[in-house]
Amino acid sequence: MSDPAAESGAASAADATSLREALDRAIEARRADGGNLAVLLIECGVISRIDAVWGYQVGNAVRDRVTAMLRADVLREGDVVNEMGRDDFACLLSTVDGPAVTLLAAQKSLRVLSTPFWIGEEEIYANPAIGIAMYPAHGDQAETLLQRAKSACTRAHDLTGRIADYAEERDNSGAAKLLYENRLRTAVSEDALELVFQPQYDLRRGQVMGAEGLLRWPDPALGMVRAEDAFAAAELADRVPDLVSSILNRALRNVSEFRYSAGLDLRIGIKLPARALRHADLVDVVQRALGTWSRRPGTLIMEIGETSVLGAEPVTRETLGKLKEAGIKLSIDDPDLAVSSLFWLATMPFQEIKIDVSAMGDLAGTPKPARILQSFIELAHHLKLDVVATGAADEATEAKLKELGCDYMQADFKGPALDPLNFVERYGFNED
Q1: Could you say which DSSP state residue 136 is in?
Q2: How far, in Å, CA of 313 to CA of 290, rounded?
Q3: Where is the GGDEF domain (predicted)?
């Protein structure tokens, strides 16, 4: 008995070889006459699902229909279309005047494939995306053009228009993301991430009351990776809970060591992008880490950035509420926060807000910025939010912050971010 899937795979391999040979010939012809050609890589986005519901024979019939539609309604004499994979089709436009003509062909392909396919009484729609690569602008070898058309097609899935042309910087960006993703997996699995700790001062008592753990990811290939890039790579790899777990366990371990080796009983702040709250198991990750290191929930401050996400995604607000119910202290740490956002943020379970005062200039010598800051602090207190000032430059600013009623301060002049050993040496109480 024949195997439709195997037969389809063999046919696709033969088609791919046929297309590469046709592309090689077309490149030689354009090299000779100085003209352009283009490759459209089209992902149909429906055939694999048809296979799963109606079987390979129906899927094959739809593939044949797609090929026939492209030949009849898009391609000209001398152009070629071949099936490159179960859902992938490659069109060779053997000669084009330039990018505008190629884009028109891609748009026409998109319209053709956006019409419904009828399977019995069912109306099925494809979800096509199209990537464009041109000779000689994007490459002068068949394999290069196909790869770059595929790269553009991958990007097209994220665009409203569903069409993208190849650009080298985008391709490099995609390669960089893949590299970050793979390196992050290794760093998390090998516990290679590092934290440095910056002290936070209680302005009312004049003493260190906590620290913020700042992620440092030193990678031999990538250099020092920013926390934002680490979380972006974790999202791509679907490893956000693993990254948060690694950061939390390292932070809570270090804070426990501060307590037992140096007499420092500190609260610890960890910053997360609000996107991380999309993960339903995040609360369990946090609670497990607290249990492992025997820390009270109230000594952990989750500092949330990118708070605009909270307004758009209900799941993030639900996770925030669960963290509050678990006893975690929640802090707003969003430098892009608009004052208008405080209206709806007031309905969220936050207990603290961080504000960067570096842009306010000389608070001690200029009354207007000081009055604005005082109003903000009073508003925050009315909302039952503690205020943590960051970016203070000197002791005069520290004194003014205390006068204005600010609760806490975190500033480089008062104490830079240090690795755990140097943090203990500088701020510890115990003597050897």
Answers
A1: T
A2: 27
A3: 35-170
90 plus 216 within the same structural domain: no
Which of 166, 200, 223 marks a domain boundary?
A: 166
CA distances 134 to 138, 140, 223, 332, Å, are: 5, 9, 34, 47
Two tokens at 129? 């995306």
Q: What is the pLDDT of residues 216-231, one digit of tens each?
A: 888 776 677 788 888 8
Q: Angle 99-113/56-73 helices, nearest 10 degrees?
A: 140
Distance CA 94, CA 37 (A): 5
In DSSP notation, 157-219 reads TTSTT-EEE--HHHHHHHHHHHHHHHHHHHHHHTT--EEEEEEEEETTTTEEEEEEEEEEEEE
Among all chains, which residue has been given the structure tokens 């044949």? 64
- Report pLDDT digits (tens) over 345-385: 778 899 999 999 887 877 777 778 888 889 989 989 998 99
**Could you check whether the bond before residue 136 is cis, i.e. omega within 30 degrees of 0?**
yes
- Whole-model pTM: value is 0.57
Cα four-point dihedral sign 248, 251, 256, 259 = negative
Look up the CATH number of the domain holding residue 135.
Answer: 3.30.70.270
DSSP 352-368: EEEEE-GGG--TTT-HH
Tell me the backbone φ, ψ of residue 90, rounded to 5 degrees: -115, 130
Q: Which residues contact 414 (CB under 8 A, 6 or more apart)?
A: 199, 201, 392, 398
Residue 247 in domain: yes
